[in-house]
Amino acid sequence: MTRERLPDRRPAVTVKLVFDGTSYATTLGIDLRNMRVAEVFTHGARIGSGMDRILDDACVALSLLLQHGVEPTALASSMGRLGDGKAPASIIGALADLIAQEVVQ
């Protein structure tokens, strides 16, 4: 798969994501050519903290996977789950679930 370069300008939506009692501001960039989420940015951890750096890297990885054509539902279903089999085991899984649930109108 080759990476599909995104247009320089594209719409985005910012939503609140709560995971494990912490609120995160998550921005989803939309690629209008195929009407789906193509990038993600998340903030909510203390700036400069280890979690902040992990979130930055996770968002780059998730965005690259989306831009290489990985389906959002496949991404979400590949993430670890808690004992109930439904709840995401990490903030990265919660981000993948959010991306998979985002329907572009």
From TrEMBL:
UniProt KW keywords: DNA synthesis, Nucleotide-binding
Protein name (Swiss-Prot/TrEMBL): ribonucleoside-diphosphate reductase
Cell inner membrane listed as a keyword: no
Segments forming domain TSCPD: 24-101
InterPro entries linked to this entry: TSCPD_dom
Catalyzed reactions per annotation: a 2'-deoxyribonucleoside 5'-diphosphate + [thioredoxin]-disulfide + H2O = a ribonucleoside 5'-diphosphate + [thioredoxin]-dithiol
Enzyme class: oxidoreductase
Family: Belongs to the ribonucleoside diphosphate reductase class-2 family.
Record EC number: 1.17.4.1
